[in-house]
Amino acid sequence: MDLLKDDVSKLYFKFLISAMGSAVVISIYSFVDTIAVGKSESQAGAAAMAVLLPYFAIMSFLAVLSGMGGAVLMSQSFGEGNEKKGRRFFTVSVIIMLVFVAVFWVVSITCKEQLFRLFGANDALMPKVLEYGNLLVYCMPLFVLPNFLGCFIRNDKAPAHVMAAVVTGGIINIVGDIVFVFPLHMGMRGAALATVLGAGAQTLIMFLHFFKKSSHLKFARPAGFARTSGIVLLAGFSAGVLELGTVVISTVMNNQIMKYGTEAHLAVYGVISTIAALFQALFGGVGLAVQPISSSNFGAKQPERIRKTLSLGLICTAVLAAVFTTVCEAAPNGVIGIFMTTTPAVVAATPRMTRLFSLWYLVLGFNVLGVYYLQSISRSRMAMLISILRSFAMSVLFVYTLPLGLGFDGVMLALPISEAIVLAITALYIIYIHRKLFKPIHIANLVYSEEYACPRMNACSADNDE
Predict the structure, then answer these.
(1) How far apart are the first and last CA of the chain?
(2) By C-alpha distance, which of 238, 273, 236, 232 is closest to 368?
(3) pTM (2 decimals)?
(4) Residue 212: helix, strand or coil by DSSP?
């Protein structure tokens, strides 16, 4: 696999299939858990899973923050022909990840009930939350390691290995859910055990990549550790904020739903958020497919290949957005009914909640793709700003202000409205930066002309970010 010479379309779809497959299988973990818990524990179980979603998102954030930036920089270094520099980025990223895991693991074990209350648990829900959450907390590193390693293995030209790992883990999780929750009647503890076993298998298979002759993931002395760490974290923060934003949004939404709604509304949101996590992961898969090709060709100064990769990502995002929104708008009760044993209160709350919230999917994917793309062409600061706007500033602002005038509907409309505003900013910036780096460009269809020039690409690097 040659990222600089092979056909872009074939490369893109190889990475897309792997990234989408990984996203689906990883999301199946929470899908199957939600179904098993929703069917066995009904409304209370689904509401408890909504409380636990921010904890899963924190683990993903730690993996992406320490891994994605280092993987991008490693890939760019390999594209430049500097393998030693790439290995230094890998080594520094591993050290950062281990520190993050150690700190958060201690905090989780000593303050787990306080964390779960912050995420929206009340006295009634706490027993159910702890049934699942206790094992999750004690096995936390198993959920960070595979996501972290996947960033580097994928950029080490082995996306199929990543997919094999997550598929194996997913199968173990599904089988475990079916066996532990129902025949063995272990309830939420059984669902948690199945998830831990799946994550453990995934981690083990990821480690096998290091024993391949084709692996370039080797350690090197981390010269200039402080400076390199800063570069890695800056590059990874924009993608990591997508995960951290899930923590913030889920926490704020959980608390606002309990303020303006009922436990039935929180149970419905628990299912909606599980579905949304899958959709965001699939949109992220599109970005992950774009990222290694764009970053390598950016390092090699090949703008036409970058342009074609982005065009493919935009087309995939548009198709996914249309499909996701249509399904949720057309059959809200059918979708929710798959995941839980419904009650009259749940049936009454589902249609309007689902239809308002699903408008988010029309714009979500384009912002996610924009963050990964800008990161791959060394526009980390702008990628970080977009991530902060959509994940914190705009979303939190609207979640708190819209309900003041619209009540519960305002809670459901907050994310679609804030995401649309951020999309306008993202699109304008990408048009602006393309005009500076590549000339000329047809904005109407986002397709560049055949006459290409890239006078400033030599000046574009992780250390010269605009």
Answers:
(1) 31
(2) 238
(3) 0.68
(4) coil
